[in-house]
């Protein structure tokens, strides 16, 4: 049994910035974090008492210098890792201000068909749904 099994889930706000042509932004997890070097959609843990959408906006400013102007809740995924039991709240945003900057030293990439790898395990199954949305 993993250490995280049975622990209270941690809420994580995750944002998918989507350009009009369908390209989405992914970032690479920096050194020192669990799953370092894996690719993910930007986001992070919701702080105590914080609304999930506020956490999303905060993380995007902190990590990328991007101000999300609007975002729609897309789906929720629960996953138990060795390091944590996470509840991921995915949002899609088509309206933001600012060009993404690497404020935490992380690599990032705009992707059509997602070609970066490896991806965080809980994120992989969502790509097929995302492609149906982007390329109907
Ligand atoms: N941002 C993000 N996190 C994801 C995705 N898929 C997935 O399983 N996760 C998991 C990995 C982590 O266990 C958790 C995010 O936590 P984190 O440690 O990156 O959050 P944080 O930036 O607030 O971290 P911290 O340094 O403040 O502790 O969610 C995804 O696509 N994007």
From TrEMBL:
Reaction(s) this enzyme catalyzes, per UniProt: 8-oxo-GTP + H2O = 8-oxo-GMP + diphosphate + H(+); 8-oxo-dGTP + H2O = 8-oxo-dGMP + diphosphate + H(+)
Ranges in a coiled coil: none
A Gene Ontology BP annotation from the UniProt entry: DNA replication
Classification via CDD domains: NUDIX_MutT_NudA_like
Classification via Gene3D superfamilies: Nucleoside Triphosphate Pyrophosphohydrolase
Family statement: Belongs to the Nudix hydrolase family.
Record-given protein name: 8-oxo-dGTP diphosphatase
Species in which this protein is naturally found: Massilia atriviolacea
Lineage, broadest ranks: Bacteria, Pseudomonadati, Pseudomonadota, Betaproteobacteria, Burkholderiales
């Amino acid at each position: 049994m993993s250490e995280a099994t049975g622990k209270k889930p941690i809420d994580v706000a995750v944002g998918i910035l989507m350009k009009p042509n369908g390209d989405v932004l992914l970032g690479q997890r920096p050194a020192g974090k669990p799953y370092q070097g894996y690719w993910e959609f930007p986001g992070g843990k919701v702080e105590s008492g914080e609304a999930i959408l506020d956490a999303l906006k905060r993380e995007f400013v902190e990590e990328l210098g991007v101000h999300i102007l609007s975002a729609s809740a897309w789906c929720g995924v629960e996953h138990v890792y060795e390091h944590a039991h996470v509840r991921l709240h995915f949002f899609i945003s088509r309206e933001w201000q600012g060009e993404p900057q690497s404020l935490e030293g992380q690599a990032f990439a705009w992707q059509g068909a997602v070609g970066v790898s490896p991806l965080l395990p809980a994120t992989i199954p969502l790509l097929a749904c995302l492609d149906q949305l982007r390329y109907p």
